[in-house]
Design goal:
Length: 332
């Protein structure tokens, strides 16, 4: 796990870190064969990703939970994982630790047709700057949905209004890292603006991998009570409070859940999904979205997909989760 390499912003094509040229195809943008991958880039099972969605008859994948950030922010995130910080608490190797252009090539090579740049501030004064970076990233990366974020601070409603006017397609709210109450009165107008715009907001509000002061179902339930039309996407299926967040999804028709890291061997060791709740996953099948946490995952991308198959909820369910539901929600 070496230090992050410096990449050229805006350069998303062509060659890997060792100079190998990527091939181009039509289904997923850049298609990486075994011989064309950056040396050392192939994680276990990478070659199976394309077969997964082709066998389902899909045009590719939509991943609603991927992280692209300013270089120095991503480097700090990786350093935190390397140190197994207090919100991690266990060894967490970053599988896809490449410079930006190579991460984009790998993701496109998997056949991911649309993805996000999940950004999040941990203090006041940071969100506006992150939003500016994400807007620029989306402008030079057409398959990335323009992502925005916010923090409970003076002026939050104003910059969220600007982001919506500028074309933001999805928001990220990280209650755990931000350490804030999502029902903070300074965010009430923010949630209202996002609700009225019908733009989804991926929210890490569950208490995994470690609880925070404002994590768990109760704080975000207070937001939903005020904003019942909010297109809230509960990250990680609300891990580990799965049952409580399934309850919220059944109570509010616009609440969705993303699968990020859930059902994988890594997550099941510490926060197993209750087997008795699988039937509820089937019942909410049109509101569950595939998310990966790429590149910050301690296993190969294929494992996240194959973990969904192990649920044995059927091909129609998989087609909705891996493409159809997000396409409908995001207008893709």
């Amino acid at each position: 796990m070496g230090a992050a390499r410096r990449g050229r912003e805006g350069d998303d094509g062509g060659r890997g870190p060792c100079g190998e040229r990527y091939g181009r195809g039509t289904a997923g943008g850049v298609v990486l064969t075994a011989s064309e991958r950056p040396r050392g880039a192939a994680a276990e099972g990478d070659e199976r990703v394309g077969a997964f969605w082709r066998e389902l008859g899909l045009p590719g994948l939509i991943d609603v939970h991927t992280h692209f950030m300013p270089e120095r922010v991503m480097a700090k995130v990786w350093a935190y994982f390397d140190a197994a910080g207090p919100l991690v608490g266990r060894e967490w190797p970053i599988t896809y630790r490449y410079e930006e252009k190579d991460r984009l090539a790998v993701l496109r090579g998997f056949g991911v047709r649309a993805f996000t740049s999940m950004i999040y501030p941990h203090k006041a004064g940071m969100a506006r700057w992150l939003n500016g970076w994400a807007a620029d990233f989306a402008a030079r990366t057409p398959d990335c949905l323009r992502t925005a974020t916010f923090f409970p601070e003076d002026g939050a409603a104003a910059y969220v209004r600007d982001e919506l006017a500028g074309g933001a397609r999805i928001f990220k709210a990280h209650v755990q890292v931000g350490g804030y109450d999502p029902a903070d009165e300074r965010l009430d107008e923010v949630w209202g603006l996002i609700e009225d715009a019908g733009v989804p907001v991926v929210t890490h509000c569950g208490s995994g991998p470690a609880p925070g002061k404002h994590t768990g179902p109760e704080p975000i339930a207070r937001v939903l009570a005020r904003h019942p039309r909010l297109r809230l996407v509960v990250a990680h299926l609300g891990m580990p409070e799965y049952t409580d967040f399934l309850d919220l999804a059944e109570r509010y028709e616009h609440v969705h859940l993303d699968t990020t890291m859930t059902f994988t061997d890594f997550a099941e060791r510490t926060a197993p999904f209750p087997r008795q709740e699988r039937g509820r996953l089937a019942g909410l099948g049109d509101r569950i979205l595939f998310g990966s946490d790429f590149p910050n995952i301690p296993y190969g991308y294929a494992h996240a997909l194959e973990s969904l198959t192990r649920l044995e909820l059927g091909d129609d369910w998989l087609r909705g989760v891996c493409h159809g539901n997000a396409a409908r929600l995001l207008g893709r």
